[in-house]
Amino acid sequence: MNHILEKVSLHELSRLEHNIYLTKSRMCQYNDIMALQFKGNYGYGSKGNCDAAYMKAVATAALSVWEPTALIIDLSELTYEWGDRLEEIFYIGTHQYDDTPFPTALVVGPDCEEGIRTLLWGVHSAKSVHEADWVYTDMQSALEYAERKMREYDL
User: Fold this and answer.
1) N or C: which end of the chain has fewer CB within 10 A?
2) Can you spell out the DSSP letters for the chain?
């Protein structure tokens, strides 16, 4: 029996769109900060599993290719309500450089803030999403956080 090869593509997993941006650190010109933006409608519950897999694959590839010193995950234009696998991308750079810390911040928007709050703290928690010191509602604050952490970690 012959094998039949079926062509597949990451774009078949999800209707989400992504953009990758780089900026130089103000502290050190050879350190890049990556902003990885995802836009669109994340599937509700397990229907978002393919979206999470797509996001993780894009993020892993982007980190491997451009090797930034810090990462901003921009979800400000993402619609998200529920689905545990989204959390996988929050820690995507944890082992980027073995034992070297990898600053990561998250930017949320009005269509995902509440869903991410419950993902971080639980559905019955009264905590705000902003109680996580790495979560912001604007890109500039997230970039400043990344710069502070890079300074703190002497990167």
Assistant:
1) N
2) ---------GGGT---EEEEEEEE-SS-TT-EEEEEEEEEEPPSGGGGHHHHHHHHHHHHHHHHHH--SEEEEEEEEEE----GGGGGGGGTTTTTBTTB---EEEEE-TTTHHHHHHHHH-TT----GGGSTTEESSHHHHHHHHHHHHHHTT-
